[in-house]
Write a structure and sequence with these properties.
Elements (H helix, E strand, L loop, with lengths): L2 H8 L2 H9 L3 H28 L3 E2 L6 E2 L1 H31 L4 H21 L5 H18 L6 H31 L13 H6 L6 H19 L8 H7 L2 H30 L1 H22 L6 H22 L1 H33 L10 H4 L1 H14 L6 H15 L3 H26 L13 H24 L3 H14 L1
Antiparallel strand pairs: 1-2
């Protein structure tokens, strides 16, 4: 059984092999898509086995998949597949137009696979040290994707990403070392002192001072990956400058990896201090993130930066759900992580089609998308409503669950502030996206995709994602509900 999670993590490397073998975007893209499909199949099989029995683990727990790991692995695998499909069409167009040279196409697919494998591996280990290494490997791979289109602004964004992320991951390492120190004197080997299950079981015996400091450093460090304010400064630049399928991976998957790490530290802290300590920390970072995201989404002209600040906001919402705590809070936060991943992935992918057609990211230079490109315009507009938490989409259900958690935790004032910020976000975000999609058609704008394969791989992931978050707004499948409940039990 241990071969299943290992295979799931290694499957995206098919794209890396393709990048090393060919510079043709279509051929490399097809192998990347095959890797994404295989990754999702193996991840789903792993999740089914975990749900039917006990966690899957190797000796020393270097490979460890429980309910929470399975949930995040499934979320990441879905994003990898959708982004792989989008990469095929997007890079084929850019290669045909000469925007990307054959060498850059090779680099993109080679690094894309390493990036995906790093993220999958991060949520399939119970070792704190290995988690740090895999998150850093995924980060370094993703840095290469940010400036790959060769713009000066992309190079600046990539450099800022390296600097801020390096500072953040150093703090995460320091937090890991303090937690390791907190376990000094406990029975077992030093390797046991770095594993989730051991630390949670012996949480009552951990040194309180070291654990408090370790938890705070871990939240700040991995919060940099998540994009929590004030550690978010790299995120708007990197997400807006990267090719749109890479932006989908950054927003839909990498942010979740950081949140997964924070959730594991929450479980340890809760076992030692109870839920109040971690709750207060997360509520502060969560509300700061939603507030800053709301302010920076007002009159935002670069629509990809708008999407990036939306990611900051949604990570804040997840932190708020975890901060409210309880069954409803953690359940809502995890469900929101899934909904946001799918919703933001489809928005970045359909936004990529808009960029290719109009040649700009400036929202004030784009209009009439719904008329000029009916399918792209419709998915762009509907996707915008979905990511804003409008019914009947999944984000409405997860945000509503978090609101219920706030009332259950007797935080009525915070719930009121939360709802007020959501109104501001809705007005600022939808003003931009509705202005882009509505209005008269522009005669110079035509679909950038040529041939059935390009059109299919451009529109299929968007429609699949839209269908998924619509389904999650109407019905949470029984197996997903069970997986969420099992994940909640590991955190509370």
């Amino acid at each position: 059984m241990i071969a299943l999670p290992i295979g799931a993590a290694m499957a995206p490397l098919l794209g890396t092999i393709a990048g090393l073998l060919t510079a043709r975007a279509r051929l490399a893209g097809m192998l990347a898509v095959a890797g994404g499909i295989l990754c999702l199949i193996l991840t789903a099989t792993t999740a089914a086995l975990v749900m039917a029995g006990r966690p899957i683990q190797s000796a020393g727990s270097l490979v460890y998949v429980d309910g929470l790991g399975s949930f995040f692995a499934l979320t990441i695998a879905v994003v990898i597949l959708l982004s792989s499909l989008g990469s095929l069409s997007y890079l084929a167009v850019e290669q045909r137009h000469g925007t990307l040279s054959p060498r850059r196409v090779r680099v993109y697919f080679a690094v894309f696979g390493v990036f995906a494998t790093g993220m999958m591996g991060s949520v399939e280990t119970a070792n704190l040290g290995l988690l740090f290494i895999l998150v850093e490997a995924a980060t370094l791979a993703s840095v290469v994707l940010v400036p790959i289109e060769g713009r000066t602004s992309g190079l600046e964004a990539g450099w800022r990403y390296v600097v801020v992320s390096s500072m953040g991951i150093t703090m995460a390492l320091a937090g890991t070392l303090f937690v390791f120190y907190a376990a000094t004197g406990l029975p077992g080997s030093p390797q046991d002192h770095l594993t989730w299950a051991f630390l949670v079981r012996h949480a009552d015996s951990l040194d309180a001072v070291s654990l408090r400091l370790g938890f705070l450093l871990a939240v700040v460090g991995y919060g940099t990956k998540v994009g929590l304010v004030p550690m978010h400064t790299w995120l708007p630049d990197a997400h807006s400058e990267a090719p749109s399928p890479a932006s989908a991976m950054l927003s839909g998957a990498l942010l979740n990896v950081g949140m997964y790490a924070i959730i594991r530290f929450i479980a340890i802290a809760n076992g030692r201090f109870g839920p109040a300590y971690a709750s207060h920390v997360l509520l502060v970072f969560g509300f700061l993130s939603v507030l800053v995201g709301a302010l920076f989404m007002v009159r935002r002209r670069d629509f990809k930066r708008l999407f990036a600040y939306s990611s900051v906001e949604h990570m804040g919402i997840i932190a708020i759900g975890l901060g409210f705590g309880g069954l409803l809070g953690v359940y809502g936060a995890l469900l929101h992580a899934l909904n946001h991943s799918i919703g933001k992935c489809l928005l970045f992918l359909t936004g990529g089609s808009v960029v290719l057609a109009y040649g700009t990211r400036r929202s004030d230079h784009i209009g009439g998308v719904l008329t000029s490109l009916p399918l792209t315009g419709a998915t762009f507009l509907i996707g915008s409503l979905a990511i804003l938490g409008s019914p009947p989409f999944g984000l409405f259900i997860s945000e509503f669950t978090i609101v219920r958690a706030g009332f259950a935790a007797t935080y009525p004032a915070l719930v009121g502030l939360f709802l007020l910020l959501l109104v501001v976000i809705f007005l600022g975000f939808f003003r931009t996206t509705s202005g882009m999609t509505l209005g008269p058609a522009e005669p110079r704008v035509t679909s950038p995709y040529v041939g059935r394969l390009e059109r299919w791989t451009a529109h299929a992931p968007v429609l699949l994602g839209l269908g998924a978050i619509l389904l999650l707004g109407l019905w949470v499948p029984g197996w997903l509900n069970d997986l969420l409940l099992r994940s909640v039990a590991l955190v509370r």
